[in-house]
Structures are given as structure tokens and as C-alpha cells.
């Protein structure tokens, strides 16, 4: 049985997509990763389902990585947050490879149950190298989602214009018309 992904924002880089496994819906915090079924949905959404098992140990390690990344996004450069992400990164490494197609890289893990979390942490490093100023939290006060701003001028404010952007516009409109 395939379960659909219930999250309001998907398709972000894997590190931010892991953070986005928690969201608010109608004022209630939701969490996709409450069980291995939710982990299976997240792994499939990120093309990791063929490489890693959706078992209890992988879930525990993926949650540890999510918490470490959340701490770093909340407190960029904070020593404790940096140490927690670095600890996750310590569970894997990149091995240079040579294939008939040419040079490549391959992730290796002593314990594959750290694979999804390590992959997300490694992706976050890539985002920091690429454009750290484009890693954003949604500007809506009730939203906890994150995104990588790929807009041309780098001014995206909302996780989704259709959801949070529209709420903000409706709120401003209501405030203007209420006083009239």
C-alpha cells in the first residue's frame, strides 16, 4: 500500500525537506516522521527508498539528524548546533570513484541506518556552500516550513504563495477593510 505525502510543501532540497516533515495545519503541529510508514513516505519523496530501509533504527537516526539540522537553522553557527550536525556527518563519508563514465563520488556508511540523515546533513553543507542567504524560513508567523529561494532576485518570502502568501494578503486586506 502506497501512502501519499500529506505535507503542504515538498520538493525542496533533501535537508530542508527533512525539516519540512513537521508543519502546522489548522493550528496543530503535524509530524510525518512519527512512525516507519511516514519515514517510507519521506524516503520515497526524496528518491532514497531504494537505498535505505524504513525501519525503527533508521527512523531514530533520521530524527536525530532532523533535530540537529533544526538547531542549526534556528541558531546558525551556534557551537552546540554545529557539533550536533557534525556528529551526524561523522557517520558517513564520500569515496572518490572511477567508473566507465568517468570520475564520481559515492557515499559510504559503516551503519546504513544513518544514511538518510547523513544525506540530509551533507545536502545542507552543499546549500551553505552554494548560497547560505537563500536558505529561508517562511515569513508567515504561524508557518514552520523552510525553503531554498531559487527566485531570480532572491526575494521569495513564503513557502507557498498559494497558502501562506495568500493568508498574509487576506490578513492585510481584512485589517484595511475592518477600519472602514
Describe what you observe in this structure.
This protein is an alpha+beta fold and 180 residues long. Strand 3 and strand 4 form a beta hairpin. Strands 1-2 form a two-stranded antiparallel sheet. The protein has 6 helices and 6 strands, in the order H-E-E-H-H-H-E-E-H-E-E-H. The radius of gyration is 18 Å and the shape is globular.
Query: Helicity, in percent?
Result: 40-55%
In the sheet with the most strands, the strands line up as 1-2
Query: What general outline do the C-alpha atoms trace?
Result: globular
Write down the overall mean pLDDT: 91
Main beta-sheet strand count, sense and barrel state: 2 strands, antiparallel
Strand content: 15-25%
The number of strands is 6
Taking pLDDT < 50 over at least 5 consecutive residues as the criterion, the unreliable ranges are none
Structural category: alpha+beta
**Rg over C-alpha atoms, rounded to the nearest angstrom:** 18 Å
Keywords:
single chain; 180 residues; alpha+beta; two-stranded antiparallel sheet; 6 helices
Structure summarized in a few sentences:
The chain has 180 residues and is of the alpha+beta class.
Outline the fold blueprint.
Elements: H1 14-19, E1 22-25, E2 28-31, H2 36-45, H3 56-74, H4 79-89, E3 92-99, E4 102-109, H5 115-130, E5 135-137, E6 146-148, H6 161-178
